[in-house]
Each structure stands twice: as structure tokens, then as C-alpha cells.
């Protein structure tokens, strides 16, 4: 049994995470843990705690910590109950318990934004007094699951981290760069460049940097289009020296592939004024070619899983697929185009058709079900259109600012000459509510 509790003492609620973290099949162990929770009535236990322990901030923080790890993300009732305690407790928490509570609350999309807004305000007021590593942990959590607008917070917090960066470890330094790039924090681009130079000095021009940290660095540089020749040549040198390790870490491999592909596209678009000989570019081409088989395998697996689950703001991919097909267009879902994941490819799309309502015969076409397997279909730039459905996860918190990875993807595909259509979740819902096929066509176009 990896979960125990005492009916009379909430502080003896124990989850032995050492068993989980060290396990080969972490998913299976978490499922076992959740079944144990059901068997011994842990949900009722947490609900009673939320009602009875309103005067114990420390215990509520511990329960919050455990609840996020026990209960599935699609069942947030317990988290909502526990989080309500912090509407009034946020300001009186000591630093230790504030960091615990904020980290857990920032990491999830609660039913109500009120608690997170209060914790954001408190984070902003405390930031100058928090240790840099705690700020970094909170920033990472904030950018992982939050749905409130925290752009103003970022503009004030990143300079604070920069002022106190001397105590950071290299992995913490690159976490800052990752958060800045993911949030597309262009307001602090000068701060970003200072932190890049600090990481460079920290790791002796990247010769002592871990490969995973260099992968993050290159990805962040590509997001902001910071193409400083000396930095890139040194960082890419680290990747070349350890390229045999790339296939062992799909996330890092994806970051490197995206970064180097962005560098290639920038060069093709005449945006670089570098003096590197052709041999350097040949090595990049070779590295990308070598990475493709494993890269595509990981991408296809991820895309297949994505197609079977809800995405964004509770938009079902199978419904999106059917909806697009109902416009009379030939739609192929879940494609990889030029090493990028694409939600849908519309084949043989003719822009002149936008001026007319589609022929009624088009609606008689039998709608195919979503395919059981994701397959790669070549894309014709002159005849096909790429459709991306951008749910909330593509934006920074609750703002309308695109996340760095999404922005870089759009930018590169546009430079490559692809025709693109972007739909947000609200736009898609508006199309789906249309009463007739012709009305759906009009809204889509």
C-alpha cells in the first residue's frame, strides 16, 4: 500500500512518492494510487478537511500538495474546495507555505480565477523578497497550466530574477530562458540577452553545459529570433559533440530540431549575415536528417494520442474533423508538414470558391470517420491549406498573446510559403452552432 491515512489526524495523510518517482511504470502506479483513494474514501476525507481545517494554513497547503497529485486533472472539485481557503489566507501565509500553495494553484486551471488572481497579486508583491530559485519554480508552474492574464507580472518579475541571477544553477538559468520564450516576453528581450550571456559565462562558452540545457537555450533563441553567430556556433558545437544522446530525450530532441530548422529557414529567407563556411551548414543538414526518423516516430505517436483526447477549450478533435468535412472540403487530420505538427490539411483548396456557396451535391458526399491511424500525406504549397485550431494552451495565460512555440511555428511555415488558416476555440464553436452547411461554410471562409 503506498497510501495511508489516519481518520483522526489529517497531518498523518501520507503519499509515499518515492515509490512512484522511482518506478518504471509511473502511470500504472498512479492509477493504483487513485484506486486506493476510492477504496478508503479519500475524496470525502479531503472534503471534510476543507470544511474543518480553516484555521490551519500549513495543513491546507500539504493537502493541496497531495490533492493535485492524486486526483485526475478532469476532476478538479477537490482542488476547488481546498483552493477557496486561500481567498483569505494568501496574505497571511509565511514564505514557505505561500510558495507551496502558489505552486500548486498556478499549476492547474481552477473553475474560478479569483483565487489565482489573488495569488498572482501576492506573488508580485513578494517577488523582490523571494529567493530566485523559488521565483523560477513559481514561473514554471505559472506557465504550465494557468488561465489568468499574468503578462504584467512577467514584466516586473523577470528583471528581479536577472538582478539576482548570480546564485542560479545552469539548469535554473535555462528554465528562466524557457519561461521567457514560452511566454513570448518580448518586453524583456534585453533581460533575456543578459541572461543568455550569463549562462554562456556560467558554462565556459557551453563547453561545460548539459545537453538538455543547451537544447532549451537554442529553442529560446529561435523563438525570439536572436541569431547571434558566435553564440549559435558555440551552442551547436555542444550538440554536435553529444548528438548520439539526442534520441534518448524526445522533448530535447524536439527543441533542437525546431531550433535548427528555424535557423535554416532564417538563412533561406536571407535574414542571417553569418560568415560560416558551407561545412557548418552541411553538419546542421546532416544532424536534422539523422534526427528525422526518431523525431517523426515521436511526433506521430504524440499526434495519435492527441487525436483521441480533447484539446484546448474542450474542443473534441473528432468533432472538428467532422465540422471541417461538412464544409465540403477534403480534410486530412493530424499531419506532419515540414517537421511541424498540423491539425488539419485541406487538400486542393481553391480560394476562388470563397466567393460562392458550395454546390448542394457537395453535401451529399459521405463523411468519412476520423482515421484509426495517423498517416503522413505530402502537402502541396500551391494547392493545399494548413488549418490550426488554437485553443487556450496556445496563448499566454488568459491573454491574447501567442505562446513562443506557436508563434515560431506560424512564422516559419509562413516563410516557407504555406497557406495557413488559424481558428481559435470560440471561432470554432461559432461555426459549429451554425444551422446549415452553407452558413458553416460562410463562417469558416
Could you list some keywords that capture this structure?
two-stranded antiparallel sheet, 445 residues, disordered N terminus, 20 helices, four-stranded mixed β-sheet, alpha+beta
Write a brief structural summary.
The protein is an alpha+beta fold. The protein is built from 20 helices and six strands. The protein has a four-stranded mixed sheet with strand order 3-4-5-6. Strands 1-2 form a two-stranded antiparallel sheet.
Describe the protein in words.
- The protein has 445 residues and is of the alpha+beta class.
- 55% of the residues lie in helices and 9% in strands.
- It has 20 helices and six strands.
- The chain has helices spanning 17-21, 26-39, 42-52, 57-70, 77-83, 86-89, 95-106, 114-126, 132-145, 151-163, 170-182, 189-202, 211-223, 229-241, 250-268, 278-307, 317-325, 404-415, 425-432, 437-444, and strands spanning 3-6, 9-15, 330-337, 340-347, 385-390, 419-424.
- The strands form two sheets. Strands 3-4-5-6 form a four-stranded mixed β-sheet.
- Residues 1-21, 308-315 and 352-374 have low confidence and may be disordered.
Amino acid at each position: 500500500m503506498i497510501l495511508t491515512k489516519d481518520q483522526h489526524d489529517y497531518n498523518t495523510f501520507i503519499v509515499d512518492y518515492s515509490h512512484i518517482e522511482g518506478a518504471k511504470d509511473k502511470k500504472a502506479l498512479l492509477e493504483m494510487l487513485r484506486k486506493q483513494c476510492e477504496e478508503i474514501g479519500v475524496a470525502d476525507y479531503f472534503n471534510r478537511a476543507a470544511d474543518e481545517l480553516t484555521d490551519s494554513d500549513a495543513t491546507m497547503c500539504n493537502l493541496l500538495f497531495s490533492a493535485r497529485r492524486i486526483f485526475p486533472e478532469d476532476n478538479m472539485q477537490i482542488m476547488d474546495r481546498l483552493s477557496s481557503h486561500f481567498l483569505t489566507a494568501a496574505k497571511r501565509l509565511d514564505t514557505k507555505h505561500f510558495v507551496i500553495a502558489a505552486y500548486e494553484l498556478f499549476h492547474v486551471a481552477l473553475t474560478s480565477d479569483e483565487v489565482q488572481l489573488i495569488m498572482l497579486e501576492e506573488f508580485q508583491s513578494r517577488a523582490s523578497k523571494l529567493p530566485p530559485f523559488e521565483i523560477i519554480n513559481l514561473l514554471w508552474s505559472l506557465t504550465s497550466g494557468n488561465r489568468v492574464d499574468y503578462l504584467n507580472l512577467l514584466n516586473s518579475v523577470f528583471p528581479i530574477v536577472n538582478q539576482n541571477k548570480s546564485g542560479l544553477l545552469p539548469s535554473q538559468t535555462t528554465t528562466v530562458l524557457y519561461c521567457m520564450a514560452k511566454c513570448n516576453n518580448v518586453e524583456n528581450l534585453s533581460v533575456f540577452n543578459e541572461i543568455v550571456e550569463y549562462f554562456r559565462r556560467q558554462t565556459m562558452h557551453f563547453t561545460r553545459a548539459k545537453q538538455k540545457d543547451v537544447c532549451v537555450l537554442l529553442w529560446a533563441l529561435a523563438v525570439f529570433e536572436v541569431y547571434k553567430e558566435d553564440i549559435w556556433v558555440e551552442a551547436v558545437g555542444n550538440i554536435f559533440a553529444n548528438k548520439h544522446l539526442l534520441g534518448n530525450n524526445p522533448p530535447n530532441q524536439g527543441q533542437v530540431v525546431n531550433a535548427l530548422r528555424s535557423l535554416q529557414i532564417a538563412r533561406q529567407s536571407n535574414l542571417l549575415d553569418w560568415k560560416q563556411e558551407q561545412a557548418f551548414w552541411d553538419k546542421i543538414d546532416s544532424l536534422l536528417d539523422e534526427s528525422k526518423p526518431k523525431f517523426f516516430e515521436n511526433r506521430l505517436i504524440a499526434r495519435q494520442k492527441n487525436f483521441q483526447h480533447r484539446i484546448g477549450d474542450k474542443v473534441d478533435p473528432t468533432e472538428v474533423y467532422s465540422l471541417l468535412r461538412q464544409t465540403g472540403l477534403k480534410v486530412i487530420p493530424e499531419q506532419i508538414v515540414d517537421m511541424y505538427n498540423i491539425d488539419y490539411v485541406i487538400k486542393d483548396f481553391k480560394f476562388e470558391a470563397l466567393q460562392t456557396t458550395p454546390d448542394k451535391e457537395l453535401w451529399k458526399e459521405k463523411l468519412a470517420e476520423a482515421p484509426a491511424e495517423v498517416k503522413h500525406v505530402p502537402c502541396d504549397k500551391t494547392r493545399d491549406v494548413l488549418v490550426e485550431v488554437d485553443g487556450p494552451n496556445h496563448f499566454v495565460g488568459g491573454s491574447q498573446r501567442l505562446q513562443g512555440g506557436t508563434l515560431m511555428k506560424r512564422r516559419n511555415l509562413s516563410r516557407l510559403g504555406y497557406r495557413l488558416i488559424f481558428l481559435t476555440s470560440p471561432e470554432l464553436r461559432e461555426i459549429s452552432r451554425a444551422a446549415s452547411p452553407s452558413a458553416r461554410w460562410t463562417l469558416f471562409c
